[in-house]
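S1.2 Input.
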Amino acid sequence: MPNRPPPVHTDHTNAFAHYSQSQRVPGTIRETQVLNPDYAPAIHVALDRLCEQVEADAVMPMIAAPAPDYESWAIQHAEHAGETWLHTEWFFAEVYFYRHLIQAVRWFETGRDPFLPKKREEFASPALWHTLDEALTTRTLSPEERLGALIEFDLWGNRIDLSYAIAASHGAKAGEDDLLADDTARFAEHLLRTPGVVHIICDNCGTELAMDCALADGLLEQGHEVWLHVKMHPTFVSDTVMADVHEFWRLLATRTGEAHALGERQQAAFDAGQLRILPDFYWNSARFLWDMPDYLHAMFRNAALVFIKGDANYRRAVGDALWDTTTPFANVVDYFPAPLLALRTLKSDPVVGLPAGMAEHLDTLDSQWRVNGKRGVIQGKLP
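S1.3 Output.
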């Protein structure tokens, strides 16, 4: 693998990271308070304090003990000892902020998802159900065509990010030139000739989760097992936790037609152990993908394929670094122990695997092409 560049930082060396940490993060705190006006006064005070600390660029404190993930965060926090919210690695700061928000709202004590009102609004969106209906029409296609179409549906579902309205405004249907790198055909063929477990490392709930489930349906039909990897606790506003999957399946049961039938198939596969939901604290951590625990490395080693979803997980895979954009994706992730396919709409600066000259051309068309969620990539590596 090529030498890794350093991660993006939250200071002024990267404008978007600095903007996100200094402006979007306090906005998320204030929105959380608006979404949950009945929080106890002490929770509002804790959220106010967290907001003030970020805005003041205070030293990042250690989370409080006891906590089930305390030891893991103690190690990660020690690696950034004395660093401040706006002078540290962006991936660490952003992920660690959400862990502090979860502490402030006392999620481990209540189980109350601070982002649930936004998630339920998205689950009720007519656009979600229209997109799902379109994805389910792929059942009439050949197996290879169906898998390819479902992979693309799953990519563009990643635009619908409840923490980032600019990306969501583009909707879940792509324009002609929005797909910058496309390994779909190669991986659809791989899936048809490679039996085994397919892992989907989930990102957003709502529309994207619906597309995850549609893709899982196509994979199950081809005889694969499908394991959905989700966050252990709420984070990044719309990221999927276990309860979100069950909530979506309950909603499918209230529908008619193909959506209802999908729900029945998903529940039957789940009951049979062919479809699993696996929450893990690692996906809430600030560790990069090459630093995943040994048990995950061993689990993925024999996978038919691992889908890694979304912008934050793409940053996790490439070290949240500004590589030369022509560096092949497969070279950057050659450490990963199994076939890997990234489905990601661009909401931050790091990107690899583009043809020579494409990044420069896009710079002339749209100065925000790396961060506004309009473009996407389907990039992978096979053995």
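S1.4 Remarks. DSSP finds 17 helices and seven strands in the chain.
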